[in-house]
Structure prediction request, 291 residues.
Amino acid sequence: MIVQRIIKEPLLHFLLLGAGIFAVHNWLPNRDQGERGRIVITQGQIEHLATGFAMIWKRQPTSDELVGLVSDHVREEVYCREAMALGLDKDDTVIRRRLRQKMEFVSDDIATQIQPTDADLSAYLGAHPEQFRVDPRFTFQQVYLNPAQHGTNLARDTDQLMSRLPSNGKQADVSTLGDSSLLENRFTAVSVREVAGQFGEKFANALVGLKPGQWAGPVESSYGLHWVWVSDKSEGRIPLLSEVRDAVRREWENTRRMEANEKVYQDLLKRYVVTIERPTLTEPRKVADAQ
Prediction:
């Protein structure tokens, strides 16, 4: 009974695992000879540790704290080297992803060393104009009719509403006309994307074709029908570089990073012969066969 309890003891399992690891370690060639067994902590690394401490604690480390940081760094280096010697880094998804990320950081650093000129940014803007296009903007009023409330009288009520609309829709208050809704009656300098977000694509597309300075309708939206007065609109256009320089620069740099990553990867890939085995596909058994 005592023996069975000892066998089930987790501490015993831990000790056996530790003994196995050290047995494998002793079986490996001794790497403590020569340069491979040396750990050198440079002045630059010490300054890096001190800077990291200061960023977290908002002060410089004391002498004792700095000694502790260096000691912990040495401990980390020892454990990392021994873990890699034992192959503990193999087939570890987290470690593999982190190593890939660090390799991509290297190519990112290469890309960021190149600063774009105005000619580079102008060329990028010219090659991707739609990415930076300024949307059309509209200032308009709308009066809403809910088809569900009017039923078969919708056409008649629409005509009656038209006759009640003020001749000067730019200045008039139309908030008391039509049916109530959560939509605003007046919109000022809103982009076509904002209009589509509130009324739907069909309404936004119709708004583009409306002539300013007159009532138009009924215009259909995702809510129902509207009479619309457009008082002002600006056409969509491709902006000047001076207007969107920061946005163009961000996209140019992102493109450069992706290109640099791909180039580094393709250069590294040339060092390998990649063989991808095709999976053996088997016909699924019929339900009757499985039973």
About this structure: Confidence is low (pLDDT under 50) at residues 10-25, 27-33.
